[in-house]
Amino acid sequence: MNRLRNGDEIVVIAGKDKGKRGSVSSVLDNGKVLVDGINLVKKHTKSNPQTGVQGGILSKEMPVDASNVALVDPETNKAGKIGFKVEDGSKVRFFKSTGKAVDA
Asked: Which residues lie closer than 8 Å to 41 by C-beta, 6 or more apart?
């Protein structure tokens, strides 16, 4: 079970986008996450009339390492550490600061 899942509200805690908030759009297998509007880079594309691709400079989201983001606690509106515990035979995520379950 990963600490982050699709749709989680996160805040960047390290890197060029430190302090920005966003939503996780996908979690990759290599320990990285794609976040909406975070870590944008410019990609120069060449036009290809045969396939209908228009050339120009595009903004593209690149993956951010999962260690550089933290889940936002909706109660305190701050970044919080995530732990795991077993409740009723299922593994759940919880905030270590408040002890409340993330998915509850």
From this structure: 59, 60, 61, 62
Q: How is residue 38 annotated by DSSP?
A: S
pLDDT at 25: 96
For the chain, residues with pLDDT lower than 50 are none
- Within 13 A of 5's CA, how many CA atoms are on the CB side? 6
Angstrom distance (rounded) from CA 103 to CA 5: 11
| Rounded-to-integer distance, Cα 26 and Cα 33, Å | 6
Q: Please state, in angstroms and rounded to a whole number, the distance separating the CA atoms of residues 75 and 100.
A: 10
Domains and CATH numbers, the chain: 9-95 (2.30.30.30)
